[in-house]
Structures are given as structure tokens and as C-alpha cells.
Amino acid sequence: MKIGKDKLLHTGGCAIIVIIISRFLIFCGFGLISILIGGAIALIIGLGKEIIDSKIGGVNDPNDIKADLIGIVLGAILSGVVILI
Which domain holds residue 73? Predict the structure, then answer.
């Protein structure tokens, strides 16, 4: 199975969004809920991008959302590991 560059960008982008937002919120004192908030924001951004793509004639690929979800999970795991260290 070949994974395209676009899917890697979706996965990596969502992971980075979750990590940055959750780390910022943890710094502000929100605790573990910050990982859920980061994941929700990453999902909203990913869904928004797909909606915009469909409106402007771009390619609307359901696999992009799957890649986003994988990135969200990876970002949440990495954020959780950093919290425990």
C-alpha cells in the first residue's frame, strides 16, 4: 500500500496542531483536557479544509479525514507521553 504525500501532510499537520495546542493549554493550566481540545480543533480544521476544497472545486477525498484522525491520535499520544515525562 502506497501512502501519498498528501496523506502524510494531513497526518503530520494534525499531529502538530494537537501537540502545539495541547502543550500551550497545559502551560496555561488546563491539564489533560487540553489534549482533547487540541484534537477537536485539529479535527475542525481538517473538516473545514475538506469543506472548502469541495466548495472551490478541489478534490474532496474521504481518506484525507482518515489521515487527519490518525494524526490526531498520534499527536494525542505524543502529547500524553510528554506530560508523563
Answer: 5-78
The amino acid at 11: T
Structure confidence by residue, pLDDT tens digits, 66-83? 999 999 999 999 988 766
Identify the residue whose cell numbers are 480543533.
Answer: 41
Cell numbers placing 35: 489534549
pTM of the model: 0.88
Q: How many domains does the chain have?
A: 1
Beta strands in the chain (DSSP E): none
Say if 85 falls within a structural domain. no
Kindly give, in sequence order, each residue whose CB lies less than 8 Å from that of residue 15, ignoring residues fewer than 6 positions away: 71, 72, 74, 75, 78
Q: Tell me whether residue 32 is in a domain.
A: yes
Instruction: Answer whether residue 83 is part of any domain.
Output: no
The runs of H, that is alpha helices, within 28-61 are: 33-55
